[in-house]
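Structure (tokenized):
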């Protein structure tokens, strides 16, 4: 059974990579899934905490049920703490490196070549001079 899990993951995500226009669209797709998944997980953690409170109150003096309710509450609090700590850490790192969280993602320009440019010349703030400028001879 364990050997089928990686194969099923590959088949699950293969259409994303086959039909994707670019890596940017795949990242945007994952970003959309995560933005839906995070509030759901936070709600589940809050429900676990509330369920622990209900179990603790309804224990009516039974030590085993009270202990079980306390442990459920502790797990809920730990889950909430971890989620909000990670969210705060991501926000802190994003602010530190001035990463925009809201807009569309633009891929970086590497070596003076931009991914979607169809025009000629110097694209994207490259330090490579255009053809014919200077003493450097470029190969065709």
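Design, position by position:
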């Amino acid at each position: 059974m364990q050997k089928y899990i990686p194969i099923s993951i590959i088949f699950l995500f293969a259409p994303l990579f086959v039909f994707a226009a670019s890596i940017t669209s795949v990242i945007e797709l994952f970003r959309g899934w995560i933005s839906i998944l995070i509030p759901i997980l936070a709600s589940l953690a809050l429900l676990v905490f509330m369920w622990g409170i209900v179990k603790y109150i309804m224990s009516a003096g039974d030590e085993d049920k009270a202990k079980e309710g306390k442990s459920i509450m502790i797990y809920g609090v730990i889950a909430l703490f971890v989620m909000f700590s990670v969210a705060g850490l991501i926000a802190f790192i994003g602010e530190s490196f001035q990463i925009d969280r809201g807009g569309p993602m633009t891929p970086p320009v590497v070596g003076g070549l931009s991914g979607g440019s169809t025009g000629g010349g110097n694209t994207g703030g490259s330090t490579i001079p255009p053809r014919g400028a200077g003493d450097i001879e470029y190969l065709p």
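Reviewer-requested clarification: The mean pLDDT is 75. The chain has three helices and no strands.
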